[in-house]
Amino acid sequence: MTVQLGRPAVYLCPTEHCPNLLQLAVGLLAELTGHYGAVGVFRPIVAEASADRVLDALVEQAGTGTGAPRWGATADECLENPAGAAAQVVSRFAECASRYDAVLVLGSEYDCSLAPIEFAWNTRISADLHVPLVLVVPGRGGADPTRQRAAVALAEAQRSYAQVVAVLVVRTPGQSLDRTELADLPVPVFVVDDLTPNRADEVGVLDALHASVVAGARDVSGIRAADLLRADTDLASLLPAVRPTSTVVFASDRDEIPLGLLVGAASRKFPLPAAAIAAGPKPLREEVRALWQELAVGTPLLRTEDVLDRVGRRLAGQQAPDRLTGAQLEEARRVFARQVDSAVLLDTSKAVGRADIVTPLMFEHRLLEQARKANQHIVLPEGTEERILRAAHRLLDQRICRLTLLG
Predict the structure, then answer these.
(1) Do 167 and 189 meet the contact criterion of CB atoms below 8 Å apart?
(2) pLDDT tens digits for 271-315?
(3) φ and ψ at residue 44, rounded to 5 degrees
(4) Cβ pair 345, 168 in contact under 8 A
(5) Which in 81, 88, 98, 110 has the greatest CB count within 10 A?
(6) CA geometry: angle at 218 spanning 213 and 220, to 5°?
(7) DSSP letter at 221?
(8) What H or E segment, with its residue span, contains residue 164?
(9) Rounded Cα distance, 317 and 196, in Å
């Protein structure tokens, strides 16, 4: 592989919130360790500097938790000072990579203030670090929606001048999706079984969503974030995507969605989902609730005032495991090794995207590295001038050269 610092590196990057990220990262970490030895773990963007569940668990598995930087910038730093945050990510990654034989770069959780533009940020960072992406795409809805999601993500990566070496598609239990159905994508595709334990129970889900069951069954243990289906389109597009394992979340002012689900099930052409969630501040009409209670006795209808995006993030966060048990870790490694050809992930020869692109941020970083290695002694006149002092502070802070100020 050709990467920015001469160290092998892979950027595992979900295209949306991914409760399976820890499972996939554990499997990829084991493959990297087997190929290269000591593997560092680095996360460019974190929600908060104080804690990161997935990063902490993965560093523990890597066994390389030394003083190397583990993350680049917080989401708030990216919003408040984009250029400064991006430069900080590059600098911290360079320091981390210099200490290990290889690096696993971990994409975002999409659970913070940066979420609407977080994937674009990850693709730009990938280009700045010159580390190729392995995209993680949910397989919900079958081959066609999965292919569309992957194509959109690939296009975004290419707009950012990032390389993509492969796509990992997460297949939920009982799903028949096969990689041959996605063979027309321009990069290799691997389908990986979802091993993430479903921690959903009635109390946990209702607390996480700030929701209550307003009709149908009380049992909400069948709700899975991996099968979340947002009803942000028309019924003609929604109904064919509904599966018995789906959790359909819809805006509470769209009465046609729950009514359409009931009519589709009554026609026996479409199944009822495992659950439906009415989200948003507008109250659900009583007539809709009563009809659901009468016709969908076995399927819970939940009500929350959270908006659609927040429902997805809350549910995924509630269902994602804090850490995996020893048996689950071993199973994650075994499944990844069996279902993914790691040699493909480590080979950029067939990657989508150009390998010869040097972004402005990377060019600046390389110049600064050359200046540090040269360790030149520079004398600056007018040492009391405010602009000179600011420049001197930056030069010294980044250890670019040795300085003498006159004045």
Answers:
(1) yes
(2) 999 899 999 999 999 999 999 999 987 899 999 998 887 787 777
(3) -60, -40
(4) no
(5) 110
(6) 85
(7) T
(8) strand 164-171
(9) 12
